């Protein structure tokens, strides 16, 4: 199969999977991104120019604030993708896991560690060169999903993500980057709309950030899961099976 056909296949499966799982995806996104939206909104209220400190400390404060804003915009994406991976790939013979059951089986510690390290790596890449941040993000974007799918450690998740993407960098970038760019545009539009309707306070920022993430994160996360499954299958010959229909009854062979 050519790269173009594989890429189109990923986008086609993305559309089908999102339509089938929209209620679950949006429900989980609401639970994750409403609190994270509040953190984003608080960070937006920080005005480093008003700090009564020396110029050196002010520069450090500006860099720190920039890092915090960058981290808050990325934080949760890797974790959320891992949660989506767990909810979409449970065994065929089992019933669809509800929120409580899903919550019990998510590898919280490892996914949070992956999230923090991913953000740190992207920030370090950006400090070296902007393109460096993009390269780091693409190579390590699958780490959270791999940790959840294969129940491996944090280091193994990053190594596995790099090895899966190696040789398929441009295909992964062709899925991840457009979705991120369009998602950022939608986020910005929803934030602006919230400010237009609710003013420029904390509430408006919270509503806008939360709504933007809830609208866009499920699409990005499903894309990452599908990419991971495709690359695992391409490298290993087999991969966890995707449950495309919530509550689908198992086939006789699966039972």
- The assigned structural class equals mainly alpha
The largest sheet is: none
Low-confidence stretches: 47-53, 248-255
- Note the run of SSEs as H and E: HHHHHHHHHH
Query: What best-fitting shape do the alpha-carbon axes yield?
Result: globular
Find the count of extended strands (DSSP E, 2+ residues).
0
Helix content: over 70%
Distance between the termini: 31 Å
Work out the radius of gyration: 19 Å
Give the integer mean of the pLDDT values: 77
Strand content: under 5%
Count, helices:
10
Explain what this protein looks like in three dimensions:
With 255 residues, the protein is mainly α. It is built from 10 helices and no strands. It has helices at residues 3-44, 55-74, 77-88, 99-105, 108-128, 130-140, 143-150, 154-165, 169-198, 202-236. Helix 7 (143-150) packs across helix 8 and helix 9 (169-198) packs antiparallel against helix 10 (202-236). The longest helix has 42 residues, at 3-44. It is globular, with a radius of gyration of 19 Å. It starts with a helix and ends in a 19-residue tail after the last helix.
Compose a concise summary of this entry.
By secondary structure, this protein is mostly helical. Helix content is 78%, strand content 0%.
Give the topology.
Blueprint: H1 3-44, H2 55-74, H3 77-88, H4 99-105, H5 108-128, H6 130-140, H7 143-150, H8 154-165, H9 169-198, H10 202-236
Helix pairs in contact: 1-2, 1-10, 2-5, 3-5, 3-7, 3-10, 5-6, 5-7, 5-8, 7-8, 9-10
């Amino acid at each position: 199969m050519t790269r173009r056909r594989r890429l189109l296949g990923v986008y086609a499966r993305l559309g089908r999977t999102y339509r089938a799982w929209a209620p679950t995806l949006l429900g989980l996104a609401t639970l994750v991104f409403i609190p994270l939206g509040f953190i984003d909104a608080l960070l937006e209220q920080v005005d480093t120019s008003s700090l009564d400190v020396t110029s050196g400390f002010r520069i450090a404060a500006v860099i720190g604030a920039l890092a915090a804003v960058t981290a808050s915009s990325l934080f949760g994406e890797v974790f959320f993708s891992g949660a989506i991976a767990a909810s979409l790939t449970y065994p065929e013979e089992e019933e669809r896991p509800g929120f409580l059951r899903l919550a019990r089986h998510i590898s919280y510690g490892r996914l949070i560690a992956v999230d923090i390290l991913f953000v740190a790596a992207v920030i370090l890449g950006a400090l070296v060169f902007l393109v460096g941040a993009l390269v780091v993000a693409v190579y390590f974007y699958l780490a959270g999903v791999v940790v959840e799918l294969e129940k491996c450690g944090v280091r193994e998740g990053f190594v596995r993500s790099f090895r899966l993407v190696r040789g398929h960098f441009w295909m992964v970038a062709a899925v991840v980057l457009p979705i991120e760019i369009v998602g950022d545009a939608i986020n910005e539009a929803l934030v602006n709309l919230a400010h237009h309707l609710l003013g420029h306070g904390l509430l408006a920022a919270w509503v806008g950030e939360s709504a933007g993430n809830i609208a866009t994160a499920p699409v990005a996360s499903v894309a990452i899961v599908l990419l991971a499954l495709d690359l695992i299958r391409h490298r290993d010959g087999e991969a966890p099976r995707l449950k495309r229909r919530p509550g689908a009854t198992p086939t006789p062979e699966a039972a």
